[in-house]
Amino acid sequence: MNNILENRTWRYATKKFDSTKKISNEKLELILEATRLSASSYGLQPYHFFVISNAEIKEKLRPVSWGQSQITDASHIIVFANVTDFGEELIDSHLENTSTTRNIPSEGLKGYGDFMKSKLLNLPEETKSVWTSKQTYIAFSNMIQAAAELKIDTCPIEGFESEAYNKILGLEEKNLNASVVLAIGYRSEEDETQHYAKVRRSKEELFTYI
Q1: What percent of the chain has pLDDT over 90?
Q2: What's the total number of domains in the chain?
Q3: CA 83, chain centre distance (Å)
Q4: SS3 sequence of 15-30
Q5: In whole numbers, what is the pLDDT of the chain averaged over residues?
Q6: Per its Swiss-Prot or TrEMBL entry, what cofactor is needed (predicted)?
Q7: Residue 137 falls within a domain, yes or no?
Q8: CATH code of 137's domain
Q9: How far is it, in rounded angstroms, from Cα 98 to Cα 91?
Q10: Is residue 64 packed enough to be buried (19+ CB in 10 Å), middle (13-18) or exposed (0-12)?
Q11: Is residue 91 classed as helix, strand or coil in its secondary structure?
Q12: Three-state secondary structure call for residue 50
């Protein structure tokens, strides 16, 4: 139980990564699998993750990320991209996967499928994009915590030009949009912010028991 709080106290938004230290494939795959298992509304997972270690791509992304050194120095950059628009295919694909995974007839899922379609398909495109972008943040948070469990550092990054990311990574033709970015790797000993006390609002301010 104490590890839960210990790991969350240990992690911080790493400002300077040690560029010589790389995450092992084993640990990276564990983090990605933990993220794949993340909750999402209806289980639809309307997003895609780009796991970037290529130095040239990272160099291209840094100028459109406010020049932040984390982009080039971290072991990997994870771009969380949300589906910008969708139709029945997103829901039908999920239903097919459910049918196969749980070994149940697809006919038995029709009612649930119709319910999802009634709630989602008539939404304006902009509303759909906002909703799918919110879904990325659920997975995003899970990745941060999974990394902390392995004592791997992260830095959440919202300071970037989404349209430039989309162009560099060719996301628009994939019906995707760069929603949020996570730099993961190992902190540099020179990063003074690792020694700062964690600042959070008190429980009395945050929680109301009813």
Answers
A1: 99
A2: 1
A3: 13
A4: CCECCCCCCCHHHHHH
A5: 97
A6: FMN
A7: yes
A8: 3.40.109.10
A9: 10
A10: middle
A11: helix
A12: strand
Residue 152 covered by a domain: yes
Are the CB atoms for 170 and 51 separated by under 8 Å?
Answer: no
Residue 53 makes CB contacts below 8 A (sequence gap 6+) with 22, 75, 76, 77
Statement: residue 1 has pLDDT above 70: no
Q: Could you give the 3-state DSSP secondary structure of residue 184?
A: strand
3-state secondary structure of 45: coil
Phi, psi for 20 (deg, rounded to 5): -85, -10
Let me know if residue 92 belongs to a domain.
Answer: no
Q: Which of 58, 39, 72, 73 is nearest to 143 (CA)?
A: 39
Instruction: Taking residues 51-67, report their average pLDDT.
Output: 98
Q: Which residue range forms the structural domain that includes residue 180?
A: 2-85+124-206
State the Cα–Cα distance between residues 83 and 81, nearest whole angstrom: 7
